[in-house]
Amino acid sequence: MRDELMKLLEDREDEMIELRRYLHEHPELSFEEEKTAEYIADFYSGKDVEVETDIGNGHGIIVTIKGASGGKTIGLRADFDALPIKEEADVPFKSQSEGVMHACGHDAHTAYLLILADCLIQLKDQLKGTIKIIHQHAEEQPPGGAKSIVDSGKLDDLEAIFGIHILPMAPAGTVGYHSGYSFNGRTYFKLKIKGIGGHGSSPHKANDAIVAGAHFVTAVQTVVSRRVDPMHSGVITIGSFDGKGSFNVIKDSIELEGDIRYSDDETQKVIDDEFHRIVEGLEGLFGVTCELTYTPDYPPLYNNPELTAFVADTLNSIQDKEFNEVKEFPKLAPSDDFAYYLEKIPGSYFYIGCTPKGVNEPYFNHHPKFDIDEDAILVAAKSVGHVAWSYLNE
């Protein structure tokens, strides 16, 4: 079956690329992917599988492929939302939606998984076990779609889950993996500081919110430099400081927004505790009032070491012309809500190189000129196909 599956995927590479280009031309933002979800559901119309739509807090879809014989149950996930970015990539299939772009590769993720799923459906009589295909909405926009799909209970029977992300960190043909904590967690915050307004000539009659906010910006940076274990990583970013007013008026209130990244659960707790301590201290130190919105978005992504080793060993043992190299990648700073699946289900999230041919310094994911080598789509399909087949049959 493995050889037959790989041959089917090779024969349908052009179709994967066509699907990817169609999706690229018709991107939809997180929680607004109605037409994309319809397109995905229609793809499975008339096929001998169970299709469940509107799973979770949006347009999530789960397609259940049951093999002819009993066995394990696993999940394969791809996301399908786009970003609020105006495309600048020079491609003939540019986004037709102004200000919306598939700048993270979710179009390629969906294209490979659609064809892989269809090929697995064709071979289901030879399949040992069950595969749940998870087409997930809203990866890019917190609270994301993954947690709600997990909370739906539809995946409670999974023994393992796998997914990939295309990254321009290596050429097509390269598969990367990383064990343990692999993607950072992320928290959003908004802090409103209220003082007392006044005239610039009479600061003693006012309480300057900007002064308190400026102290906060400086103080909060000491959390990472003086409280976080230097062998771990964290970052606190103040992305917005809204204190605009008249040049001779003391502001009565300001608002700051930003995000926090952390490499693991221990670091998250340290930053959480210290961040709140500094906010509380501002009130006592400056006599201001603070209103804090503090929302953990996605947890750190933890790849199960045993299953990640299984992925690496499986792909290293395969003689496949699409694979040039299978190697360990470094821990990565971005966040991904695949982490929610891995909190409950053992699994591994691995990486597919997609650097365009002839490009030495590619634009990274989320850049308006982001583009991929479309050879990576078949690499994604075959790598996940090999892993799924091996897990269920070996």
Keywords:
single chain; alpha/beta; four-stranded antiparallel beta sheet; elongated
Explain what this protein looks like in three dimensions.
There is one protein chain. The chain has helices at 2-11, 13-25, 34-43, 106-122, 146-151, 209-226, 265-286, 305-317, 338-344, 375-393; strands spanning 50-55, 60-66, 69-79, 128-136, 160-171, 174-177, 180-183, 185-194, 198-199, 234-242, 249-250, 253-262, 289-298, 301-303, 325-328, 347-355. With 394 residues, it is an alpha/beta fold. It has an eight-stranded mixed beta sheet. Strands 10-12-8-13 form a four-stranded antiparallel beta sheet, with helices on one face. A two-stranded antiparallel sheet has the order 7-14. Helix 6 (209-226) packs antiparallel against helix 7 (265-286).
Write the layout of secondary structure elements.
Blueprint: H1 2-11, H2 13-25, H3 34-43, E1 50-55, E2 60-66, E3 69-79, H4 106-122, E4 128-136, H5 146-151, E5 160-171, E6 174-177, E7 180-183, E8 185-194, E9 198-199, H6 209-226, E10 234-242, E11 249-250, E12 253-262, H7 265-286, E13 289-298, E14 301-303, H8 305-317, E15 325-328, H9 338-344, E16 347-355, H10 375-393
Parallel strand pairs: 3-4, 3-5, 5-16, 6-15
Antiparallel strand pairs: 1-2, 2-4, 6-16, 7-14, 8-12, 8-13, 9-11, 10-12
